[in-house]
């Protein structure tokens, strides 16, 4: 009888633990899908940066109701420089349809970035991430890093290459 009682207690305790773990895991998954973050499918984490003109740029107001392409990079990066003509074309072609492009330069001086922007005739806004706060927030490991936010501020693309025109057109239509 003592063995039967032990087995009953072990079974009851095991059932309780399984029940508890199952529901606590579901809560975490639901929270991750709803909360802000830096991964595809999450609402973009907010940040504030200064533009090369010295104006404060807040992501939430900049990206509000617009498809927004964030491009993390630096002036010394060959791949970042290679993307500039593509980004300029996208901005020129789609800005009237609701596309924002924001270059985010990581840890370089305002003077150097301003000179680079002028030399390359960059036609979209450029912000300075002087302390790499936004880069850390978005877990930038390699540059360039392209992040697209849809009109609701949800991350839909996060890659080291620019998105295709088709991806942008699809997001702009929706």
Q: Can you give the helix content as a percent range? A: 40-55%
Question: What's the mean pLDDT score?
Answer: 86
What global shape is seen? globular
Assigned CATH superfamily of the largest domain: Glutaredoxin
Q: Oligomeric form of this entry? A: single chain
Q: Give the neighbour order of strands across the main sheet.
A: 4-3-7-6-5-8-9
Which structural category do the helix and sheet elements fall into? alpha/beta
Main β-sheet description: 7 strands, mixed
**What is the architecture of the largest domain at the second tier of CATH?**
3-Layer(aba) Sandwich
In CATH terms, what is the fold-level topology of the largest domain?
A: Glutaredoxin
In CATH, what is the class of the largest domain?
Alpha Beta
Query: Number of DSSP helices?
Result: 6
Distance between the termini: 67 Å
**Rg on CA atoms, Å:** 23 Å
What does this structure look like?
It comes from Candidatus Scalindua rubra. This is Putative thioredoxin. InterPro entries: AhpC/TSA (IPR000866), Thioredoxin-like_sf (IPR036249), Thioredoxin_domain (IPR013766), Thioredoxin_ResA/DsbE_sf (IPR050553). Residues 38-174 form the Thioredoxin domain. This protein has 174 residues and is of the alpha/beta class. The chain folds into 2 domains: 2-34; 37-173, 3-Layer(aba) Sandwich (Glutaredoxin), CATH 3.40.30. Helix content is 45%, strand content 23%. The protein has 6 helices and 9 strands; from the N terminus they run H-E-E-E-E-H-E-H-E-H-E-H-E-E-H. It has helices at 2-34, 59-63, 78-94, 110-119, 133-137, 165-173, and strands at residues 36-37, 43-44, 48-51, 56-58, 67-73, 99-106, 126-129, 145-149, 155-159. The strands form 2 sheets. It has a 7-stranded mixed beta sheet with strand order 4-3-7-6-5-8-9. It has a two-stranded parallel sheet with strand order 1-2. 26% of the residues are buried.
